[in-house]
Design goal:
Pfam families (chains A, B): TetR_C_13_2, TetR_N
Order of helices and strands of chain A: HHHHHHHHH
Protein name (chains A, B): TetR/AcrR family transcriptional regulator
CATH superfamily of chain A: Tetracycline Repressor, domain 2
Oligomer: homodimer
Low-confidence stretches of chain A: none
GO molecular function (chains A, B): DNA binding
Keywords (chains A, B): DNA-binding, Transcription, Transcription regulation
Largest sheet of chain A: none
Distance between the termini of chain A: 53 Å
DNA sequence: CGCAAACTATGACGACTGGTCTAGTTAGTT
DNA sequence: AACTAACTAGACCAGTCGTCATAGTTTGCG
């Protein structure tokens, strides 16, 4: 079933961008549509579930994108510690280049739309996929399963928190500090 | 000029509660006022700066409250590692008891109202005050200043991230995992 | 080719809530 | 009783999300 227009995709990527930088409630449908995405009526054609469905799908895309980026870094880097550092470096650059607008693409919405089950679910899956990647990388290096899990959560948490602090302070120093610490921690774990 | 009502204070504490659980944009003035806080007109008498000022002041209060709690734990606990673990335990309990509504009182607003300078500033100060407490505790134990700073940021970041994950997953496991890891890290640093 | 059926697009509309502010009432002081 | 500071009610309109009737476009089939 070939698609005939790219409207749906345009909407999704505009939505991903706006929800990423502003959060769920701060992003109005009008803004989203007037951002060149589409006329109003089209939204409810492509997303019968309205704003909520649009957000959930946009988050799934954002989550997947970051997951791919992480998988890539994990492949390329030599050493897990280095990979984590590279990943954080990438996040810091993205944040700085966007004038401290683009932090974690999920966290803002995860917090401000925690009441919506579909949205929450999308975030759970996004976070989960990132964590799983870290966990696998750790077990591949010989770390025991339960230890790998708790180390992966901690790493993910530290990165998320650093993104929050960096965005709030408009200064990527927290990310750099956390990067160094995590590298240390990971490398000690593997030795 | 004697005050005749406690309206202003009631507004602040209701605001603190709602912004804490819902964030800035998701919290409407109507909801806030009908939550028994006050009649509508009073808002702009007590807070000429409107919603923005109300939020900034409410955040300052929330930040101060948590700061005090942290200072208290840091005093009472025997050992810094234990203190961190106790603090996280307190946060986990608060989160669970509120049906996973009350995470960090600043982070939601910090992310979803990052565009407002007064609000951002209030968050910067709140986070800063928590970090300073940790930093002092570390240097008091003989950790070098720069090392103490980066360890304090990392600790704060990990806790914030864990709160985010726990709230999103509706499961405090991330907090428990991070608590154990941080205790380990802190105690290694001091030995 | 020609036609019907399915698909996609459109923006005016409505019910409602958002934050703001002015005009007014109440209470304390002299 | 007059004055002033403390407070409040509700009007206001821009903006919210969602609905709908209508129109246009593409596809498959006879």
């Amino acid at each position: 079933m070939p698609r005939r227009t790219d409207t749906r995709d345009r909407m999704l990527s505009t939505a991903a961008e706006l929800f990423h930088t502003q959060g769920y409630h701060a992003t109005g449908l009008n803004q989203l549509l007037s951002a060149g995405a589409a006329p109003k009526g089209s939204l409810y054609f492509h997303f019968p579930g309205g704003k909520e469905q649009l957000a959930a799908e946009a988050l799934a895309i954002s989550g997947g994108r970051l997951r791919d980026a992480l998988a890539d870094v994990l492949d390329r880097a030599n050493g897990l510690g280095a990979a984590v550092e590279m990943m954080i470096d990438f996040l810091a650059t993205t944040l700085e280049d966007s004038d401290f607008q683009r932090g974690c693409p999920l966290s803002t919405v995860a917090l401000d739309a925690a009441g919506s089950e579909p949205i929450r679910q999308a975030c759970v899956e996004g976070f989960g996929s990132w964590q799983a990647l870290l966990e696998n990388a750790l077990t591949a290096e010989g770390v025991a399963a339960d230890r790998a899990e708790s180390l992966a959560v901690t790493t993910l948490a530290a990165v998320e928190g650093a993104l929050l602090l960096a965005k709030t302070r408009r200064d990527s120093a927290p990310l750099r500090a956390v990067a160094a610490h995590l590298r240390e921690t990971v490398e000690r774990e593997l030795s």
